[in-house]
Amino acid sequence: MQIYLPIAEVSVNAFLLLGLGGLVGILSGMFGVGGGFLITPLLFFVGIPPAVAVATSTNQIVASSFSALLAHLKRKTVDIKMGVVLLAGGLVGAAAGVQVFAVLARLGQVDLLVQLCYVVFLGIIGGIMFVESLNAIRRARASGGSVVPKRRHRGWIDSLPFKMRFRTSGLYISVIPPLLVGLLVGVLAAIMGVGGGFIMVPAMIYLLGMPTKVVIGTSLFQIIFVTGFATLMHATTNYTVDMVLAVLLLVGGVVGAQVGTRIGTKMKAEQLRILLSVMVLAVCGKLAFDLLVMPSELYSIGPGAGH
Amino acid sequence: MRGGGLIVAALLAVWTPVAAETVVAGLSRDTINITANFEGSEILIFGAVGRDAPAPDGSIEVIITVEGPSLPASVRRKSLRFGIWVNTDGIEVDSAPSFYAVATTAPFEDVLTHVEDLRHRVSIPRAIRAVGLGVSDGQAFTDALIRIRERSDLYQLIEGAVTLRDQTLFDTSIQLPANLVEGDYRTRIFLTREGRVIDVFEQDIAVRKVGLERFIYNLAHDRPLIYGILSLAIAIAAGWLASAVFRYIRT
After folding, report:
1. Does residue B58 sit at the A interface (CB-CB below 8 Å)?
2. Contact A294 B234 (CB under 8 A)
3. Burial B49-72 (b: 16+ CB within 10 A, else e)
4. CATH of domain B21-209
5. In this complex, do B178 and A10 lie within 8 Å of one another by their Cβ atoms?
6. Which B-chain residues 183-222 have CB contacts (< 8 A) with chain A?
7. What pLDDT digit, counting tens, does each position of A178-231 carry?
8. Per residue in B190-212, pLDDT tens?
């Protein structure tokens, strides 16, 4: 069934969009990532204009993240206090990131920067997570059961001031590292047009030492606010949020998120991490391939700059 | 005196058909409504050649063009730098139609001369306006623009698609794709003899979003903040609803 999208001004198959939304929703529920790094390129592929794809996927992420967050709230796997600290840093970072984006857009190389950002960050994060979780699984096999992760030695992080107790995460650390993580993710989220969950999740696990189960809910909490803010910005400045496209994606997305959350609770933390890392590496590989291999069409058409 | 008379007669013979043959045409529709399940549309263009006098020798040809609203566009080209493919050069096209179809009764070169094409801007390359491109090989960029849009059926050159009966009645159908841009689509019908245009007929087809499509589009542009908040509200509500439904199913 074809449907005409009023803002994107293209006609696409409604079931295809429902399916895409559902797929990304499942991932969102399982891993606590918003799925922006997946859905945006997928929408390009379907033929949605890039500006509409970026803006509308932020709206869809709000829906699937909210659906998944409710499931996590019920299970009490959200560290709201930590989420608020991360969000404070995130909003400042996002505001800064929008400015960086505007400067690069004037220089005319913003597409390349976004792609390089994706390749570098997805590559690093995917690689580290893959190796780490593979080792964790091997250790678990060797000892014949799930291993309780060692208390990480955080050295310099422990010596920072303004310590705060995060009960849900079982942490007593300085607020400076989470603020900085939030800030960094905010900057990248604004530049790359995503919620930033795929950076946030590993940062919380490896830098802050939070338990994996709490990390997902907390990440979702933060993502909702960042992407909600981004949706409003896109709607008011670029008029590129397509409500019809968003509704189709989010109907699939919210259902997928519920399913994903249930799959997530049935799996071991190491398995979840290895799956996420494989997915991140796959997207990274695809983007790197596009940069390295000669494209079949060297030319591309964009909207006029408007003299 | 006799010689003078011959010249006048010869002039009349050339001149008369120019004034005597005109287009009498019709379109199957003058508005196209874009609704939620719009899948593209076919327009039928038909008409006749009106004559005051018997048709002169030689065949008459018909060219029909349909042109969507023109917009500026940028065309970029990638090249290999430091091992990766990046956009290195680009041009700005002043205006390029969002849709352009040309249908003819015979091969394009046979029905219209180059000079007439320049004057009336009939062929696809002529429909694109790009001046002062600022690069040496600007032609390659406009060629690419045409190539890419032809691939998605936004630009069509369909030679021989106009059927002409008894040198008088003609008709053709033009397929408009689903990804249409709103606006007035200018339809032109040219009558040509020996490559020269002898009459032109013009009419606009209004392509408009209607109903829900219209409402959403207007809301997004006139009340962007309300539209944004509404989008978020729908997202939150859908997220909550799905969660509630799943909880209900489980209990």
Report:
1. no
2. no
3. beeeeebbeeebbbbbbbbbbbbb
4. 2.60.40.3880
5. yes
6. 209, 212-214, 216-217, 220-221
7. 888 888 888 877 777 666 777 788 788 877 788 877 888 888 888 888 888 878
8. 888 888 888 888 888 888 888 78
